[in-house]
Write the structure tokens for this entry.
Amino acid sequence: MSSSRQPPVGRFYDVDGRRLLLHRSGTGGPAVVFLPGASAFGLDYLNVHDRVAQFTTSVVYDRGGTGWSAPADLPRSLADVATELRQLLRTADVSGPYVLVAHSIGGAYARRYAQLFPEEVAGVVYLDAFHEDWETYLPRLRPQQVPGSLALRLIAFSSRGLYRRMFASWPDDVRRPLIERHLTVTAQRAGAQERSDQPRWRDELKAGGPVPDAPLVAMSALGVDFAMRLFMSPKALRAMNAGKQHLYEALAASVSNGEYRALETAKHSTIHVDCADAVTRAIADLWKRVS
């Protein structure tokens, strides 16, 4: 059996007949819960998770259809994902309220969770995250086509070096199966499917009612991913970064206790690796504020 088929840490919990992987460390509360971006797994955030576990309970997990969790039809509604997470945390006996750490599309799931279960959200740290007002500051959202199997194999092959660098400091017994799992066509397809219908996230959030006035830290990654450098002009890159800064400044201003922090050297996909100290500091600062 391939080592990638079994998670190196964590355990499975049954939620409505679906096995979901959750790994928890540390004690105390409020618990910090990481919501991964598309194509990311919970264990991708192990470096920051281990640091957070030194001062409170920290949780990483895989959504249904991603990572080591059981398959699900993707993309899913934000409400389905948020409700699944709530049930998983209850099944695993992780008590709320929570500090949610949301990366990329994890921001959409975090905001829907806050709409549905406002009393369970103590605060949110947004890591270059999706927001329903994206189009006010950045280019129009469009549905994305899911690549075929051959293209996904090529993407996986070309990503091997990225994952090796990204997880270089992870323990060897975690790093090897984590990379192997990422390089499967199944994992690559799940990531593409999850991010394929961003306009639907926008519409669901806009129709979902107010997001509670919970403290937050919004962080932007102003470094340039390799793919961005290939396909975007310097002018477009500058416009994108300016738009992101305006978006997250507005997000911080939308609550009574919000803060915006820019990370000049962090890239979107690897913000938690490029600036692990700054991300951990933001989580700790917000956690102290709400605890």
